[in-house]
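Chain entry —
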Amino acid sequence: MEGTEVQESAPGELISYGRESYYKPDPLPPSRDLALNRDFYDLLADATFWLGKLSGVSLELDFPPVLYTSLLRKEAMESAEIEGADVDYNALYSLETRSLDETEDGYSIEPTSDTDTKDTQEVLNYEQAIEDGIEILDNGGEISVSFLHDLHETLLTDVPDDRVDTDTIGAYKTVPNHLGDFLPPVPGEVDGLMDALVTYYRTGGSYHPLVDIALFHYQFETIHPYGDGNGRLGRLLITLQLYDGGLLERPNLYLSEYFNRNKATYVDRMDAVRSRGDWEEWISFFVKGVAQQAEESVTRTLALDELRRSYEEEYGGVQYARNRLACSLFEQPYVTTKTVAERLDIERSTAYRAIDTLEDEGILEEVTGKDRNKEYRAKEIFEILERPPQTY
């Protein structure tokens, strides 16, 4: 970022650093009043409504935890994809299923591809970090510097070296890091800037919670406090802040899907804040994403519930193995003959026949293409989970 690109209205300044200049953002809140118009407040009301609707649906529906985990995984996969990872539900559930079989049978199964040890690990780490963060908040903890360090360590632990650009995990960066031509604050500035940012959040901010979360996200990504993983941690913190603020009942808002589909706008809006202080466009973009993704999550959750009800109506009642398996797919949507036999406490031959029947009926589909060690997934459940946005 050259000096000519930073206008007088920018909420920060360029500081000479050798032959370069790094950008040092002003602390929050913005030094000027935000010009948020009626259209914005309509958008804010829309976002608040859909977040409330999503929380209501989350409380009302008697959903198995695995389905909420699947929505959490959608956020984790979308976030990892922004960073260049390539992974899907099949890889995640297959890895879990094969790991379970290996543990119980005492034999080793070779990974199906490099994604098992690379991209898949990133997604599982993201999922674990959100779960850890929520557990800490539920137990009276709060968002703090040590909280961020712990989440950062979880995100990058066991990720292969070719996917990590730092040796500093669970601590702030020790060498400068570039974002293209943009040089964020250098290591010596990070402690003070992050202390101020965390203090701003913990003292309640200055605006509506959604506006403050948008401001926090911009500031965090501009400071870029870690050597790597800033994008993943920044997006993860949005979910945790919504949960911490009582705006989200469960971690089933996958905002990274919106960022993933609007990457250029995401970058442009942040650059506009840094270079000329255009806060309003960034905040509107952010709040619009919350509204759209909350509505999308409601739609997807209700679709899953409608499918579950239809399975209960068609397969409930008579306790044939086939029927029990169909209804259990909402608790375990990815299965093998072994896992079905154990879950339903039946012989493997009976489990195989039940799977075969549901495959013929289009409820299950085989995903490996192998003659042995076959794996099956609940076709219609995953069609809902994997479909593109329906509401925008």
Remarks:
- The chain has 15 helices and five strands.
- The radius of gyration is 23 Å.
